[in-house]
Amino acid sequence: MRAFTTILAAAAVVVGACGGGGGVAAPSGSVTITGSEYKFSPDTVRLKVGQEVRMTFRNDGAKDHEMMIGKGVKMTGGKPDGYQTWFMQGMQMRFERDGKAIDAMAAMGGGMDEPSDIGMMLVDKGGSPVTLVFTVPDKVGEWEMGCFEDDGTHYDEGMKGKVIVEK
Ligand SMILES: [Cu+2]
User: Fold this and answer.
1) For the segment 18-58, what is each residue's pLDDT rounded down to a tens digit?
2) For the chain, which end, N or C, has fewer CB atoms within 10 Å of the first or last residue's CB respectively?
3) Which residues have C-beta under 5 Å from ligand 1, the single-atom ion?
4) Distance 47 CA to ligand 1 centre (A)
């Protein structure tokens, strides 16, 4: 049943307008991704290399949710616990909440043992959305977005999606 539902919900969002070719920087765009039990909406986002993106994560659910992008799920004690490779790692990025700049640790809710530059956005239930502003790096391919809250049970319940990076 879950697989069927996911297929129906798999409408891709393309951030911004069509990019120009040949070395022209892609136009900027913005996308809002909503988390709830246990899915992302939209569950597929397309980004263009070089595009400046404002990616907002909003929590419409009754639980705390997070959004991070990576590849290769890392297992800790038999439970999904983040990614082995992080899409955002090493990038210049900035976070905003309620129209104000916040630091990466605040965007992660603090107290995390992950590096602070993985682009994680954690929004507690009822919390204000977090916006991540970044320029899409030259990391073409299919990446995954996921939520690993509650010992990875959100991920196991299907709280994941695709981030497709194109030239
Ligand atoms: Cu979640």
Assistant:
1) 444 444 555 679 999 999 999 999 999 999 999 999 999 99
2) N
3) 65, 147, 149, 154, 159
4) 23
